[in-house]
User: Fold this.
Amino acid sequence: MRWTTFVILPTLATALPQWLKRQGGTTMLRFGCAQVVIDRLDPLVNPGQIPSPHVHQIVGGNAFNASMTTGDVSGGASCTTCRFSDDFSNYWTANLYFKARNGSYKRVKQLGAARQFNDDFSTKIDGGVLVYYVSAQPGKITAFKPGFRMLVGDPARRTADPALKRHNCFRCYTGPNFGGDTSAPCMDNKIDTQNLPKDVCKGGIRSNIQFPTCWDGKNLDSPDHKSHVAHPTSGPANFLSLGGSCPSTHPIRIPQLMYEVVWDTTPFNNKAEWPADGSQPFYFSYGDNTGYGQHADYVFGWKGDSLQKGMDASNCMGASCKDMKVQTIDQAKKCSVKTTVKEDNDGWISQLPGGEMPM
Assistant:
């Protein structure tokens, strides 16, 4: 499958039938997960550390804690905030903050997905994350195994990485109601950038973070949480050429995992409140106002072979798939985790929680 076949995914409601006819055998599970907790914990990079250096927004199963470093997390969870009720995985990213002219900060809240999808797990997740699992035939896609986890991106990066142009991006919504959301993630050079947008985005900012699609078949994790996975030999710029060859060191094709977050920057559209020098006012919780350090963490937690069933199915699209259990948005929102690090996540604060990382 080539990159050009993906441009219809964000307009699934109107283009899906034609695309399915042309691309039979492709499965794209796309579903929302409501927030399970906002906390300054990172069990992947800083296991057991309370608090961790910066704040994250976490969705998924309620087994999330500071020390979930190994093993199958699905056995420790009793509920999930995600559409598929057997998905006890945890997905998390850093929070975004607005820095006002007076130097104070306020957390930017998240919206749902673009309204053309118009399902409860897109429009009613109230600060959650959209998750994609994509499988393209022919060729076997092997679902992640219990205990699997990985990290993508580098919070210390402050310059563009050309290799990740199609994998890690922001989209400036140029009008209200998600104006500008008309093409595939990270594919429109006019509105997609690796850096945070530098001007007012009237409808908010969308970020997309995409993970590698090849696995070494042996290690469920690695010291840097990255080395056990890899991009196809064609490189990440062609990542949705899912039929592309994996390197011999990482021969197992795994699902394409992508996160999508829509940041509601609209309360901060008044440039009179921006820094006096006119600089870009949005900072991730680790002190990055470039956006190049955008990163995401994943801990696999699907119960049994439920994800493999989805990857083996043909033409499962969106937030439902044959033989996969689902729940209502009201059930999902009842799932939560108690906050461990007590901090103000909603008011104005004098500095980023944990302080700003050095540039």
User: Anything to note?
Assistant: The first strand starts at residue 26 and ends at 33. The helical segments are 12-22, 120-123, 306-312, 329-333. Residues 3-333 form one domain. Residues 1-24 have pLDDT under 50 and may be disordered.
